[in-house]
Specification:
- This is Aminoglycoside phosphotransferase domain-containing protein.
- One of its GO terms (molecular function) is ethanolamine kinase activity.
- One of its GO terms (biological process) is phosphatidylethanolamine biosynthetic process.
- By secondary structure, the chain is α+β, with helices and mostly antiparallel strands.
- The protein has 13 helices and ten strands.
- It folds into two domains: about 70 residues, Phosphorylase Kinase, domain 1, CATH 3.30.200.20; about 210 residues, Aminoglycoside 3'-phosphotransferase, Chain: A, domain 2.
- The chain is globular.
- The structure holds adenosine-5'-diphosphate and magnesium ion.
- The site of magnesium ion has 4 residues, from loops.
Length: about 325
């Protein structure tokens, strides 16, 4: 791999010191300080991550990072190198799950800004990602959480329900775990475009809710903050995507654990336990007596037998309304 730090030193024309940042699970991330007092963020992308299907191709990630910067949500891109980026250092506080539970409003605002920005260069579907991860697990004989495959009919049911009245795809981050959100004053900024792509905005919200373990009421508050209205079709849509986040990302950890063992050991993180934990949360929600209601609500109260019935209020549905 080319030496990104040497490249930055040459570009900057001055000495630069590197302080590694722990916290990310995938790449080499470091704070850089220059002799004349500037501070930057170096992101050296590990090609094994995208090769294993755990991230989008590196060139797509770089292109999307540039677009997220143009939207004013991602860090500014200061310098591009082969497989690495020099980024604006966001001088703020990286959120933890508790912070994310207390900030649904500012987080929804950051998502709206990202989603209103330039389209990303690739599309992203959480359902195709799940298929891809499962195929990888089968090909490589990786362990999936016990009972995982029994849940695939429910996944198909969720996909059909969401597809009955889809929202327009917008440029989504798709991996909004707390560590990818940085609070700078009153504003939330978003880093790490490893899984970005144009997608249903309800997945973005459901994913945030899943990663910070929102209860249903808080998930509904986030949904209202984002869409600016109280619509049971939208709250159901976000809650179903919350389940999809836990189901699919549990396999991300299973694949990471199985295919990137060496890197996983170095990260000092229990990938297997995280996979089991996410799957357990998904099972909790799938077995909840309210699950069937979510599937009905997302179709505007229509039962699966009458997919063409109009929404109860006679409106054309939320499909035609932009997400802002
Ligand atoms: N531009 C930035 N400015 C300040 N801190 C950052 C920036 N980008 C990342 N970080 C910090 O580094 C951590 C890991 O970075 P991230 O890009 O999420 O790496 P990974 O892809 O490995 O998850 C983040 O949780 C955040 O604390
Ligand atoms: Mg990250």
């Amino acid at each position: 791999m080319p030496d990104a730090l040497a490249d930055v030193r040459e570009w900057a024309g001055q000495p630069v010191t590197e302080t590694p940042i722990k916290g990310g699970l995938s790449h080499r991330i470091a704070r850089l300080d220059t002799a004349d007092g500037q501070r930057w963020l170096l992101r050296v992308l590990d090609p094994r991550v995208s090769q294993a299907g755990l991230g989008i191709p590196i060139d797509q990630e770089i292109a999307n990072t540039l677009r997220a910067a143009r939207a004013g949500v991602g860090p500014r891109v200061l310098h591009r190198m082969p497989g690495a980026l020099l980024l604006e250092y966001l001088d703020g506080a990286t959120l933890d799950a508790h912070d994310v539970r207390t900030l649904p409003g500012p987080i929804a605002a950051a998502c709206r800004r990202l989603h209103a920005g330039p389209r990303f260069v690739n599309d992203f579907s959480i359902f195709r990602k799940l298929d891809e991860f499962l195929a990888l697990c089968h090909t490589h004989g990786l362990r999936v959480p016990d009972g995982y495959e029994d849940r695939l009919p429910a996944v198909a049911r969720i996909e059909r329900a969401l597809a009955a009245d889809p929202l327009p795809a917008v440029p989504c981050h798709n991996d909004l775990l707390p560590g990818n959100l940085i609070r700078c004053g009153t504003e939330i900024r978003i880093v790490d475009y490893q899984l970005s792509g144009n997608n249903d905005p309800a997945f973005e919200l459901g994913d945030i809710a899943a990663e910070a373990d929102y209860d249903p009421d808080l998930a509904d508050r986030l949904t209202r903050a984002y869409f600016g209205e109280d619509d049971p079709r939208l709250t159901a849509r976000v809650r179903l995507n919350l389940i999809m986040s836990n189901l699919t990302w549990s396999l991300w950890f299973a694949v990471h654990h199985g295919l990137l063992r060496e890197q996983a050991a170095a990260a000092d993180f229990d990938y297997d336990a995280e996979a089991a934990d996410k799957f357990a949360r998904a099972v909790r929600d799938l077995d909840d007596p309210g699950f069937g209601r979510l599937v009905d609500d997302v179709r505007g109260g229509r039962t699966p037998g009458s997919p063409d019935a109009p929404p109860p209020d006679g409106s054309p549905g939320h499909r035609t309304r932009p997400p802002m």
